[in-house]
Amino acid sequence: MSAFRPGLLPSVLVLLLLPGLLALGFWQLARAEEKRELLAAHQARQIAAPISLTELERYPNPAYVRVQLQGYFDARHTLLLDNRTRAGKVGVEVLQPFYDQNSGLWLLLNRGWLPWPDRRITPTFATPDTPLRLQASVYVPLGEALQLQAGAPATGWPRVVSEIKPDALWQQLGRGGLSYELRLEPGPASLQNDWPVVAMSPDKHLGYAVQWFALAAALLGLFIYFGLYNARETRHEPSHRPA
Fold first, then answer.
1. What distance lies between CA 126 and its chain's CA centroid?
2. What is the end-to-end Cα distance of the chain in Å, rounded?
3. Can you give the pTM of this predicted structure?
4. Do 184 and 190 form a contact (C-beta atoms < 8 A)?
């Protein structure tokens, strides 16, 4: 008689759930490694000297590369990136076109975060109207962010948006511009610019991986337990053979 009889239903459940739990665990491990590499690249590029926009073309992956800018803001076409929070407070990030005189390119410069506690009142901020020398770093998002369902297209300026599309802005304004968002470093034109490098740390991804692997181990343990238990119960059942 078999020493292991798990039954049909537990066997099916394990076949369906165990591969998925293991896949989720390994996916979290891969995400943790990706975040470690991203943090290392960010740290290395933040201590490097800033370059000009014309030199940026030689970087196949320009994320977090620091650049030196010289030019002026276009305060008339301001974007307010909505649904940004800091320390539990709601607000927006202020992005404005900036003309770099050295390269002849427009770029979309994120000046930082601004609180917006009362949605009935447009947030106020000052924009320097003189030429400036600034430093910023290129921001390349890891993937498409989750967006709320879009309503009617926004009109007027400043314009509240839920995502940043520099190319669409340059096309609308009829300008030649950089395809990336740049985040301003602390200086005379910056607002609150304490952006996190990653939304979730590698350690948190590792914690989630441990949870998925623990669930997989628990599922496998229960499967083995019920298989042995059912086999033992079967062996102990009284026989009803006719005399």
1. 29
2. 22
3. 0.71
4. yes
